[in-house]
Amino acid sequence: MDPSGVFPTSYRSDRRLIRTRWQFLALVVFMALLLLAPYLVSSRIIAILNMMMISAVIAVGLQICTGYAGQINLGQAAFMGVGAYTASILASKTGLTFLLTIPLAGLSAALFGFLFGLTAARIKGFYLALTTIAAQFLFHFAVLNLPSTWLGGSNGITVPPAELFGQRFVSESSQFYLNFAVTAIMVAGAFGIVRSRFGRAFVAVRDDDVAAGIMGINVAATKANAFLIGAFYAGVGGALWAYLIRFVGVDQFTLFHSIFFVAMIIVGGMGSIVGALIGVFIIRIIQEIIATVGPNIADSVSFLGGDIVFAGMNVVLGGVIALFMILEPKGLMHRWNILKSSYRIWPFPY
């Protein structure tokens, strides 16, 4: 990169995630503050951070599938549920350690997602969205109609706490470090994927699948792999969710939750891993505000009823999605990149 910091001078430097010492220092400080968070903030904040990290894993997977590969996916919550049920069954019935149950949960969800990814080779757009919605209904149908001794039926499954070398991850603080370690690995892996030849193939198929096929890219395999990777991330997030809540029920993985994950990548910015993380932070903060303020509003205005929290959350999040699609369709990361470019070339207009 030249001294002005504007124009990259080599492909190798362009691929580097951390390009300056200031960026490296900022990352180190940020990671250190996260590691010290259990000692600096209340348990309530730690619980929120746990939820954010699990959502970040799932949203990053959705970002790879939808933001980078361009494959509409409205079944991410179903893939998350597959991972959660796999981890809970393996942990409760076989006693496997979480070092095995979490990867196996990701693999089971990846297999389930790959089956729906195969349909993406022939359909796209609205019809692909309907196909992924079918994953939600198929997941719910299977859980509720298979023998209750298998998946617990409507009663759900109780999950034993994660344990390593006799140390049980029961408290919010101990679970925080487990979620932090897994999230860091998954996010780092996502940056590696999008900078590899697979990531470039995803972008090529997203921009023009016909041209990508002419260039020699296996379009069908690329689309299926996008669903496979996205579902794997959802499965890992589902396993973390199972260990955090220590109970898995079918009502925890609905179409509304899939829409929440889509909202996260829309708000943060499509086609950006960092954008997915920013979207998770903003959407989760909005959800926490509504969950905190909603009951007070319901108590003060009695005719609204107790459903004001759930209804208000859906209305507000739907409004946020609509506003971003109208005013900032490329998300907050796009606006941030524009600001950075304007700062670097100032005082020149372009």
UniProtKB/TrEMBL annotation:
GO MF annotation list? branched-chain amino acid transmembrane transporter activity
Q: What is its main location?
A: membrane
Topology in membrane: Multi-pass membrane protein
InterPro entries the UniProt entry points to: ABC_transp_permease, LivM-like
Question: Can the keyword Cell membrane be found in this entry's annotation?
Answer: yes
Query: What keywords sit in the KW lines?
Result: Cell membrane, Membrane, Transmembrane, Transmembrane helix
Subcellular location(s) of the protein? Cell membrane
| Gene Ontology CC annotations of this record | plasma membrane
Membrane-spanning parts? 22-41, 47-65, 97-118, 125-144, 176-194, 224-244, 256-283, 304-327
Q: Which Pfam families match?
A: BPD_transp_2
Q: Which CDD domains match?
A: TM_PBP1_LivM_like
What PANTHER family does UniProt report for this protein, alphabetically?
A: ABC TRANSPORTER PERMEASE PROTEIN, HIGH-AFFINITY BRANCHED-CHAIN AMINO ACID TRANSPORT SYSTEM PERMEASE
Protein name, as recorded = Branched-chain amino acid ABC transporter permease
